[in-house]
Amino acid sequence: MKKLLVSFLILTSLVATSASAQKTAEYLGPKIKPPAAGQQAAYEVPIVTKKLANGMEIIVLQDSSVPLVTIEFAVRNGSFTEPPELNGLSHLYEHMFFKTNKATAIFRCEYIQFRNLAAFRNLGCDNDFRLKPEIKDWSYVGLIDQLGIVNNGTTREEVVQYYFTTTSPNILPALRFIKDAARYPVFDEQEFEGEKQNVLAELDRNLSQPGYYLNQESLNRLFYKYPTRKSPGGTKATVAAATTDQMRLIQSRYYVPNNSALIVTGDVDPQHIFKLTEELFGDWKRAEDPFVKFPLVEHPPLTKSEGVIVNQPVQSVLVQVSWQGPSIGKDDAATYAADVFSFIIRQPDSRFQRALVDSQLTTGANIGYYTQRNVGPIQAIVSTSPEKAKAAMKALYAEIAQFDKPNYFTDEELESAKTLLEADDLYSRDKLSEYGRTLSFWWSTTGIDYFRGYHKNLRATTRADIIKYVKTYIQNKPRISVALISTEQQAIAKLTTEDLTGGAAK
Known about the structure:
disordered N terminus; Cytochrome Bc1 Complex, Chain A, domain 1
């Protein structure tokens, strides 16, 4: 789905409340009566785009209701580019993005030049000053802390995002900051060691969460040949062994204009943004397409179903069933069908919710698809008690067996799901500082043309499309089913691998 459907997010919602479906209903509002056929066209998000001669894409969504602007720099990088030895280093690079670059180094050197000559020489300022003609303007550096520029970053499977929110008059300093961070990083060894420790601390926090083990076990088995390509956090071993030379390797491969995008939302004039980006990024030299030189791996299909029990000190029994789903560029129609069907499933009055939640077999249940270019996972997650675990799994697979039946959902449910998906996107646009992340996710994973046609194609999705998706990717297909359960609960539940896989042959 276009929302970043990560297992941890679903698990959090299921653990946090026994009425997750009801919470969704409260957010979306009352049931919407679908429009009559042909009466409502899919809306279009009013984005304006331009591609620079060097291949860098500029995406602008103007909204002048508040004098704020969010600027996001996105790179097609992340775990899908990482062999085992680089696993987690895209995330480490993200941490280094905000550290010293050549512009900040020049500013620092000028500051101390006439105050401490020894320090000036020790910092290697002579070399930094040679870049002055290339950097051109570094005066903004001293003002950054006064401009209210809030920045952060995120690393996912198929995109690394850096986002900056500030007031409209500060667009130029923010763009200069991004330009210099992207094009002229220093990778100071002392800063690098400090960020390695920060990332290692993040990994330690992940390891303290029981849900981490459920998610990793599922992904490691679902993408068994290339598991690092689906694990943005990496491992403590790879992060601890990381070097600044590896940072430069990532920079040279992926931080190039024809693999980057700038997304600007808020109180801006698109033509003004195009002019500024041309001035700041237009002379950035195009490089070889990294995905031609370093093509994505082909994840082999599952050959058998597996059931796995992971013992962790949890209060509820959590089961995640995963399938390999469609890939953007290979089966786009299935990705639209997956989104619509997942939305039907999550509605509180759907047959799925009635069978699993209203029956009190589970305290929460859902099925979703995570849109990816390189094989998106389909995940069903249920939260239940040890006493009801076997019955819950039996009910789950009984519902799955009915997914392709003509009466599993009504025409009204189908049309309402399309309307509500559009409404959900409109609600998310209410906070443009976050919507830029949605745009950059689409840009990197699917391409902006897919995004432009997203709601139109949702509107065109038919019952036949959904049935084809279900039969192609879910029903009678090999699956990975992982149960997160405490030793004490397992003594009561007595779950077997056959329970977890629905009796599918191993």
